[in-house]
Structure formats: C-alpha cells, structure tokens
C-alpha cells in the first residue's frame, strides 16, 4: 500500500542518491554496484502489514520468528526495486532500511550501514554542518 509516509520515504531515499553513491569529492564510492543509480532512482516504497521470512539451508526451510525479522525487505527485479516496509508502530527503523540498501548497492553492505543510517535519518542541515554535503 502506498501512503504519505511511503511516498516521503521514497522521495528521501531518491533525493539522497548523490550522498549514498558518491563521496564528498563527487567520486563513486568504492565497490558500488553498476546498477546502483538505476536501482535507487527507480525505487518504490510500499507499506505492508507484516513480513514472513524463511531461511533456506541445505534445501531445508526454516521460518524466522516475526520479532527476529527486519522491519523491511528490498526486492530487486531487473532495474526496478521495491522496499517493503512493515507498518511502523511509532517510527521508521532507519538501521533496517540502511542495511537493506547497503547490501543491494555494495558487495559488503555492512561497511555502509552506519553511514546510510546517518544520511537517511539526519536533516540536510545537520548533514551540511557535519561536512557530509558537497552540493546543496
């Protein structure tokens, strides 16, 4: 389901594309996948009531308990990406979103999870004060 919250989140992620993909010298971040800009610029965000996740190991599937699941999952089909976000009770879990984006854009997504969390959860004014913005 598309809501004002999902539209705002989608606009935020797409609007922060230069910060997520390039450093403050406008150089592509090391290891960035070749489809990264297409994936982020085509991103849509949908709200869902819940997510059901399973772990498959040696051809056996194991359901993961809801309380141990992420608050979102990113699905990529070709150059289209959809971020499915569980209806938040109070607020968005920025770390979960950052982790999903990190793994989609970089071979070792954990390296960028904290940085993406900061970029997505901070105001533009705060990012500028901290020296993250190279173009405003």
Strand and helix map with partners:
Blueprint: H1 4-15, H2 17-21, H3 36-41, E1 44-48, E2 53-57, E3 60-64, E4 72-77, E5 80-86, H4 94-105, H5 110-121, H6 124-129
Parallel strand pairs: 1-5
Antiparallel strand pairs: 2-3, 4-5
Helix pairs in contact: 4-5
Main beta sheet: 3 strands, mixed
Rounded Rg: 15 Å
**N/C terminus separation:** 32 Å
Assembly state (oligomeric): single chain
Q: Summarize model confidence as the mean pLDDT.
A: 86
The stretches of 5 or more residues where confidence is low (pLDDT under 50) are: none
Residue share in β-strands: 15-25%
What is the spatial order of strands in the main beta sheet? Answer: 1-5-4
Output the helix-strand order. Answer: HHHEEEEEHHH
Tally of extended strands? 5
**How many DSSP H or I helices?**
6
Helix and strand content put the structural class at alpha+beta
| Tally of discrete structural domains | 1
Q: Give the % helix.
A: 25-40%
Based on CA inertia axes, which overall geometry fits? globular
Overall description:
With 136 residues, this protein is an alpha+beta fold. 39% of the residues lie in helices and 21% in strands. The strands form 2 sheets. The chain has a 3-stranded mixed beta sheet. Strand 2 and strand 3 (60-64) form a beta hairpin.
